[in-house]
Amino acid sequence: MKHEEPDSPGEAGTTGAADAAGEAGAPPSLGGRRRILIWVVAGAVVLTGAGVVVATTIRSPSQVAADAAPPPASVLADRVERRVLTSSVVVRGTVTAEQTLAVTPGAGAGAAAGAKPVVTRVNKQPGTAVQAGEVLLEVSGRPVFALAGALPVYRDLKPGATGKDVGQLQQGLKALGHPTGADPAGSYGSGTKAAVTAFYTALGYAPRPADPADAENVRAAEDAADAAERQVTTTKNALKKAKEGGGDASEAQLQLTFAQQDLAKAKSRLDTARAAAGPMVPADELLFVKGFPARVDAVKASVGEPVPESLLSVSAGAPVIRASLPAHQKDLVKPGMKVQLLSEATGLSATATVESVAADPTPAAGTAPTGGGSGQAAPDAPQNPGGYALTVKPDQALDAQLTGQGVRLTVTAASSGEPVLIVPLSAISAGADGRTTVTVLGKDPQAQGDRRRVEVRAGMSADGMVQVDPVGGGALADGDRVLVAQAKP
């Protein structure tokens, strides 16, 4: 075997020194340094995790006591206010005319003969205004006109009639320039006859007689009076002759007395016949409305067609708002209370006053009125929950565009009248001694030591708030914070 020697002694020594240096602490290689870094990082992560574990598992006694203690009580507070306190009732209403009338004229003079009424002329179309004395339409050749009056037409107005409706007729005729002479108010006499005749003539119509036999009745009464007068004359002559002849005149005197009595009766009947004769105003030709201008809402038939039920619909008078109160609010609203009206559709608002509240409820839809009926509403009928009818009158004329619209009504049912201190109802507490108090909070609502109790006297309440007045020297001011509720842990 061949043994190779090193080229030189210096080379051999160098190599051995390098190996020794690597074993004795020479700088590690790049791969070694990386391995060292990885082990250092891993160790740090392990130590951090161990610290977290130790921190979560080992707590001080004070920390343990704090964690076991209940959470602080939750405090609900509100501010004391000074303002006018009002109690309100809010309902929905609809703006309507004060009066709405449905008219179904008859056949007039032809009704007795069995004639059916027919529309012969239409002067006013739906939506048009109506003034006093104007002819709205014509039925079977007879006019239908309107005059001012709050009392509805319920009978023919004839000569000799008396009553408030006669007074309305007289006032309406006078307003149109047809005075009723010396007739007393509410008495249909000769002056009213003349005014009625003049009014119909101005419209272009002849007035209908109170009785078709008027003329005949008057003539018959006149003939009877003439005959009675002639009989008086005859008996007077007979009495004169009896006295001149010296005979017994007692019989002739008795006949004269009877004849004079008959004449007096005949003249009375003639006065009655004449008073009853003359023009009348038929109920199917007259329409009393509360105010002008009125408005034609609907006409259901054209010229030549038979008169249907409710041929003509007319609205009149100042607009009013109609609503319905539920039973639990009925006693809160009284006539004379102030109302705030708001139309959400237009943004218009107005003030109004409660005019009336019905004493009895309106039956709900589908409920038959007492005394009969099927007890069921039509399938298409809107459901009416019933309630107490409420009528509200605007303080000033409403915009015409509100007619027929729904509006919101806020009725001021009660008011403190002047600013008062108010707190939520739940801020009031009552003790066993009957005293009522509120708890005023300090700067720190949780601090029990900053709280103070103030005795108060409660007043009116509305919308969850109550009026309070401090008593017993307690202090309570606008802006103070009072305890409303406190949730216990």
Features:
489 residues; 6-stranded antiparallel β-barrel; single chain; alpha+beta; elongated
User: Can you count the helices?
Assistant: 8
Bulk shape = elongated
Largest sheet: 6 strands, antiparallel
Beta-strand residue fraction: 25-35%
Q: Uncertain regions: pLDDT < 50 for 5+ in a row?
A: 1-25, 366-384
Mean pLDDT: 81
Tally of DSSP β-strands: 22
Distance between the termini: 99 Å
Rg estimate, integer Å: 52 Å
- Class of secondary structure makeup: alpha+beta
Which strand order do you get reading across the main beta sheet?
2-17-21-20-19-18
* Residue share in helix: 25-40%
SSE string, helices as H and strands as E: HHHEEEEEEEHHEHHEEEEHEEEEEEEEEE
Structural topology:
Elements: H1 9-24, H2 30-57, H3 61-68, E1 74-79, E2 81-83, E3 86-103, E4 119-122, E5 129-130, E6 135-139, E7 142-148, H4 164-175, H5 190-203, E8 208-209, H6 214-244, H7 250-276, E9 279-280, E10 286-289, E11 294-299, E12 312-325, H8 327-330, E13 338-342, E14 349-357, E15 388-394, E16 406-415, E17 420-424, E18 429-430, E19 436-440, E20 452-462, E21 465-470, E22 481-487
Parallel strand pairs: 7-10
Antiparallel strand pairs: 1-22, 2-17, 3-12, 3-16, 4-6, 5-11, 6-7, 8-9, 11-12, 12-15, 13-14, 13-16, 14-15, 17-21, 18-19, 19-20, 20-21
Helix pairs in contact: 6-7
